[in-house]
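Ticket reopened. Same input as before:
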Amino acid sequence: MKKKRKKKLGRETAWFWFFISPWIIGFCIFTAFPMLASFYYSFTNWDMFQAGSFVGLDNYKKLLGEEMFFKAVYNTFFYAFFYVVLSTLLSLFVAVLLNYPLKGRRIFRTIFYIPTLVPVVVSALLFFRVFAPQGPVNAALGFFGIEGPTWFFSETWSKPALIIMSLWGLGTAFILLLSGLQGIPGELYEAARIDGSGAWAEFRYITVPMLSPVIFYNVVMGIINSLQVFTQVYVIGTNPLMPGGSTGSGGGPGNSLLSIVQLLYIKGFRDYKMGYASAIAWVLLIIILIFTMLIFKSSALWTYYEEERK
Amino acid sequence: MKKKGSPIQTAVVYLILLLFSAAFLIPFIYMISIALSSDATANQAAYTIFPREFEFQNFVRIFTESDVPIWLKNSLILTVCNTVFTLVSSSMVAYGFARFRVKGKGVIFMILLSTMMIPTQVTLIPQFMIFRNLGWINTMLPLIIPNLFGSPFYIFMLRQFIMRLPISLDEAAKIDGMSYWGIYIKIVVPLIKPALAAVAIFAIMGNWNWFFEPMIYLNQTEKYPLAIGVQILSAVGHAGQLPLWNLMMAAAMILVIPMILLFFLGQRQMFELSISTGSDSIK
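Engineering reply: fixed in the latest deploy. New output:
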């Protein structure tokens, strides 16, 4: 009897490994091995053509002495911080408004979601035009008597333009919040109303705590994705209308758009400094891990899970 | 919240929503307006927000005067292959994680989840070397073959979905002598069709818009997918002239329109799955 059970379990185990084998094989070939390899490469001066030699921490030291690298880190942090904060606030605001009993909610929902469907390449090119010095945004500002900046052509305004452009695609975060709102039991609000609390108190003490797990998810995804920003910057930075676009680094005016991934792309796939680029990749990984860990650690302070109450 | 607000409150909410809608819609209308502009307007960049010219001929021209047909074909190949491959491999792995009681499964699953955090750039350079040694550079193989091995995010989504199915169906089939493979093919796959549809939509969108890796692995114009093709049009123009933004935006619309159609076809499945995954992953 016991033996039979064991045999059965053995078969179940074998089938388990069979079913997950695609991922296991893929993990070994495309994740585990490349990670070890790139970690090793980051300590070599290997370029694509000649076998490199071990140089210890040289790549990392060089990185810390390079102005371009600090610029890229600053730009990426600036982008990630403002994008995550603003998209969280804006998507929350729009979702709360749309939770109000209105006619035409489905239409509004579709309007706010559709920009998410536009490929990043296309939205980058489109906003290059929307923010053109003579484009619609500056025309609208001019209507109010404000002389608009040159946006992507200005060292100061290129990052804000990039952030506004990304906010156009907040649909995914917004849809999750909206469904979270619809899951909040109405009794909570009724009870609050009987207690005589105002709209702000309801928002602060019911809506935000109840939505905090969704906000948490959006923030984590937002951070991971925005720290890897590349396509938008590349498309805008290398456009021939951009000064130095077709010949320079493609990082926009004064490299004010240059991102970490873009620097990696330039060093690795244009200058073929693969060892150096691997070091950049590992710094990026460590940055992402630190931020994700900080968010996870802090989440106990500000997220609220219903299960805990029970 | 379900209580009707005062008329003034309702009016204010409507007003704000309309303003936001305008902000979200205007770039879209502007894209259409640029795509329908004449060459003369494009050369002076004298576009208007609302279309004033209606050069539908632009959509014919991008098919006859540029490489859009080739790029479109490449995009279709990439999208179809990758969507099919990722559906098959991810659903198999998801079934494995959802239905088997095996020691160490929890740890392996944690590893799978944590790989989602690793930026693709960390593995990119060694992967590039692997594919270069295989002689696969400038072919679609480096972009397609990895899809045979499942994608962590889709595996996670499908596993959550399978776990919500009643296990009694599996048990009954097992008593009837059905093998695990039979249960997967005949019972699980038919039941998770809505989730597979949603994953298919996400995979189609992801592959259709894919930019970074195709740019790394492909280096000839006629090998590119349309997403890169549009960028090429914006950078080098066509027929050796300055980039014509009206034609470029027309090509961009060829990229956008199928995604919008897909959204209207599958929005229910998409929303349901992304919402349930979003709420699962935070627990």
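The first helix of chain B runs from residue 7 to 35. Residues 7-55 of chain B form one domain. Please confirm and we'll close it.
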